[in-house]
Amino acid sequence: MLTPSLSEVAEGIGIRSKGVAHRYVQALAEAGALILHPGQHRGIELVEDALSIPLLGRIAAGQPIEAIPGQDQLDLSTLYGPNRYYALRVTGDSMVDAGILDGDTVIIEQRDIANDGEIVVALIDGENATLKRLKYRQDGSLALIAENTTMPPMIYAAERVVIQGIVVGQLRWYR
User: Fold this and answer.
1) Domains of the chain, each with CATH number or no CATH
2) Is 7 part of the annotated catalytic residue set?
3) Is 132 a catalytic residue?
4) Torsion angle of C-alpha atoms 46, 49, 55, 61, degrees rounded to 10
5) Host H or E run for residue 46
6) Residue 32 has what pLDDT?
7) Which of 49, 74, 148, 155 could be a cystine partner for 55, CB 3.0 to 4.6 Å?
8) What is the average pLDDT score of the chain?
9) Are 3 and 46 within 8 A, CB to CB?
């Protein structure tokens, strides 16, 4: 199977910047979805093994509940599917009030339309991507709102912003 070049990755996800495509490829590699072979032409390898972890039962976050042993498998590939989803590592603190912290990994459903109030991956001017809450404004512009009271909203003409996906999940490691 012939893997795509960075130009083809950029074109495939609807952006012009190979630099942004490279950052996405790097994020996918860090999340374990890709293996990179530096210095090799088209050196991107898709990890095809399904990630599955044992699901041992339920745990109370309030009043304790009876511990009932049981085991199942949580197959992450069926939860998120292979085609419409990707992961991005979060850098920065603009989304802390939404519970998304620096270093978290967010799972993105790839789509070009989002509902008002959803947390989106927004590509601005075809070059810079950000994770923000989307707000449609009455004048037709878009507000990209940080979930951090110290940061003002970013207002853009709608034609300057391309929605690349919405947040549908989040992973956080504690070690």
Assistant:
1) 1-48 (1.10.10.10), 90-175 (2.10.109.10)
2) no
3) yes
4) -10
5) strand 44-46
6) 72
7) 74
8) 82
9) yes
**Among 119, 112, 134, 97, CA closest to 166:** 119
What is the rounded average pLDDT of the residues 144-165?
95
Pairwise CA distance, residues 79 & 6, whole Å: 27
Write down the catalytic residue from 52, 77, 132, 135: 132
Residue type, 7: S
Is the CA virtual torsion 91, 92, 93, 98 positive or negative? Answer: negative
Cβ(75)–Cβ(145) under 8 Å?
no
Average pLDDT of span 130-139: 96
What is the rounded distance in angstroms from the CA atom of residue 115 to the CA atom of residue 110? 13
Burial class (CB in 10 A: 0-12, 13-18, 19+), 86: buried
**pLDDT tens for residues 61-95?**
555 566 566 666 666 665 655 567 788 889 899 99
Note whether 71 and 56 are within 8 A (CB): yes
Closest by CA position to 164, among listed 139, 141, 144: 144
Better-scored residue on pLDDT, 60 or 111? 111
Contacts of 70 (CB under 8 A, 6+ apart): 56, 57
Q: Give dist(CA 11, CA 88) in Å, integer.
A: 19
